[in-house]
Amino acid sequence: MAPSADASFRVPVAGRSGDILAVFTRAVAEKGYAGANFSDIAAELGISKGTIVHHYGTKDRLFAAMLQRYMERRLTEANTLLDAFDSSAEQLSALLYAFMLYQVIDRDSTIAFQRETATLATNPALAEGRRLRAQYLQLFRDVFRRGIENGAFLPIDVDVTSLLVFGSSQWAWTWFRPEGGLSALGVGADLVRVLLGSILADRSDLATLADPEGTVALTTQRLLTTP
Question: InterPro entries attached here (predicted)?
Answer without folding.
Answer: Homeodomain-like_sf, HTH-type_TetR-like_transc_reg, HTH_TetR, KstR2_TetR_C, Tet_transcr_reg_TetR-rel_C_sf
